[in-house]
Design goal:
The protein is α/β, with parallel strands linked by helices and about 300 residues long. It is built from ten helices and 15 strands. The longest helix is centred in the C-terminal third of the chain and has 17 residues, at about 270-285. The structure holds adenosine-5'-diphosphate and 1,6-di-O-phosphono-beta-D-fructofuranose (FBP). It holds the Pfam family PfkB.
């Protein structure tokens, strides 16, 4: 069983436009897709599609919070959230023929110190039946920047594996508790090391630094259409997907995290885990929906994912 943590949950709205966006005009939306979002809930849907039991936790509130729980019920995803006074946010992804994808991410409501303490108290019980826990995305205002550092400690004290997928100070502090795996993308590496990445060699250098200096067993750097890099005890690998006709890349990083969580749960070898995760994430890019994929696409893609040993 896998638990996914989403502190800053969201109603994700995908606006599918038939016309190219013209800024400063009135645009009509051809089709709207609402989904339970915030990165961790995309992860939960992907785990379910991979055929593994999961439980979604985090914080929800208000009418949007109730709606979000009903969306998870409709997808058959177990959940046990902390309930807060504030209203769960919305995030909008506009898909149009001109720009592709344009995202507007709300910051989220405020969480009180009491609500944070209440969630921390319940957390050990919520995760007790899981072998792997994923923690994704930003945290809402009012929560300490060390919130993930604290959660990781609780998870590791129970002898479980944990994947952290976040950015900025949350990642910096979270690394101090040594999660089993992190999955930054290039932007998140740049933010962490206050640098501008110019080449793949530099990406490898920074990934190796996280592996060695922070002692993180699996460091995965996602590279969009170029796939992902994995640094672990067995070496350094790149997983390269085949060229595909993308429909919506929102939730690709989350799909990769979900697939790696499944791989950890199933104790897959690193190369097999990388191949599987790249296939699932690329199958998500083929789907117009956020954090969903067609298992048939994954099974086709996996035949053409190249795993290259770099060191
Ligand atoms: N254009 C694309 N073509 C094929 N696969 C893609 C594409 N964009 C993303 N992916 C898949 O999704 C994974 C994660 O994508 P990425 O965009 O790097 O994550 P994030 O959402 O965290 O920025 C990639 O490793 C790849 O497997
Ligand atoms: O919690 P954050 O970091 O604000 O991100 C929230 C948003 O990111 C998304 O997951 C998309 O992220 P990715 O495309 O990087 O996977 C939206 O679905 C979501 O609502």
């Amino acid at each position: 069983m896998i638990t996914t943590v989403t502190l800053n949950a969201s109603i994700d709205k995908a606006y599918h436009m038939t016309e190219k966006i013209e800024n400063g005009t009135v645009m009509r939306v051809a089709k709207t897709d609402n989904s339970a979002g915030g990165k961790g809930l995309n992860v939960a849907r992907v785990i379910k599609l991979c055929g593994v039991d999961s439980k979604a936790t985090g914080l929800v509130g208000g009418f949007n919070g109730q709606y979000l729980e009903s969306l998870l019920d409709a997808d058959g995803i177990n959940h046990e959230f902390g309930h807060i006074q504030g209203e769960t946010r919305s995030c909008i992804n506009i898909l149009d023929p001109g720009y592709g994808s344009t995202e507007y991410l709300e910051g989220g409501c405020n969480v009180t110190k009491e609500e944070e303490a209440d969630f921390l108290n319940k957390f050990p019980e919520i995760i007790k039946d899981s072998d792997v826990v994923t923690i994704s995305g930003s945290a809402p205002k009012g929560m300490g920047k060390d919130i993930y550092q604290k959660l990781i400690k609780v998870i590791k004290d129970q002898g479980k594996q944990v994947i952290l997928d976040t950015s900025g100070e949350y990642l910096e502090k979270g690394l101090e508790s040594q999660p089993t795996m992190v999955k930054p993308n290039e932007d998140e590496i740049e933010l962490l090391f206050h640098t501008k990445i110019q080449s793949k060699d530099e990406v490898i250098t920074y990934a190796k630094r996280i592996y060695k200096e922070k002692e993180i067993p699996y460091v995965v750097i996602s590279l969009g259409g170029d796939g992902a890099l994995l640094v672990c005890e067995k070496g350094i690998y790149q997983g390269k997907p085949p060229k595909i006709e993308i429909a919506n890349t929102v939730g690709c990083g989350d799909s990769m995290v979900g697939a790696f969580a499944v791989a950890l749960e199933k104790k897959m070898e690193p190369e097999a885990a990388l191949k599987y995760a790249v296939s699932v994430a690329s199958a998500n890019a083929l789907s117009p929906h956020t954090g969903r994929f067609d298992p048939k696409d994954r099974d086709e893609i996996i035949k053409n994912v190249e795993i290259i040993k770099l060191a």
